[in-house]
Amino acid sequence: QYTMPKATSSSRNKPAKGSNNRPGKLIPINFSNCLASRPAHTSDDWLDEGNAQESSAERYQFGKKAENHYQQSILCFAAAASCDPTSFSALYNSARVRLGLCSEFLKKKEAFEANVEAAKEFNKASLLASDNVDKADSLFNYAVALIELYDRIEDGILDGTVAEEALIEKWGKSNLEAKVVLEHVIVMQRLEL
User: Fold this and answer.
1) Residues 14, 20, 25, 30, CA torsion sign
2) CA–CA dist 191, 193 (Å, integer)
3) Distance from chain centroid for Cα 21
4) How deeply is 144 buried, as exposed, middle or buried, from its count of CB atoms within 10 A (0-12, 13-18, 19+)?
């Protein structure tokens, strides 16, 4: 995890009075604040940083460091999307990384929630696609996300609370929607050939 030197109130070399902090002690950076700084960066800057974070995660492959880099990648892609709400790449990459994250790193309930977000992002990305190849690709991945949602529900990943029953009602037939989407993708691919 990235850290930075802690600033003190009295001087840079001395800790604040009554503080247990030693000079030069490092504190973790809160990456959730990166969205607040987005006006200083363009959508392309955030896309580049998101790709860099994803590359770092792939180097670690497993464990908390990889998970943190994937999470930071998603934040960067979200910042790119907030800078340019019409960015296909921002939504598509966020959904792609999120779907991988929920398959490999997250606990069941968090994975289900991330899977729902990934499905929504793939669907929205398909609406922003500038050509049929990107549209078909995002729709195919939307269908994959729907199938994974259905599998998660079938595996009984939820506890049965009222709020979760509403999620099951909404996403419980996602496999049927996935079938329709996949049929549409096949038609699109045949037209491209």
Assistant:
1) negative
2) 5
3) 35
4) middle
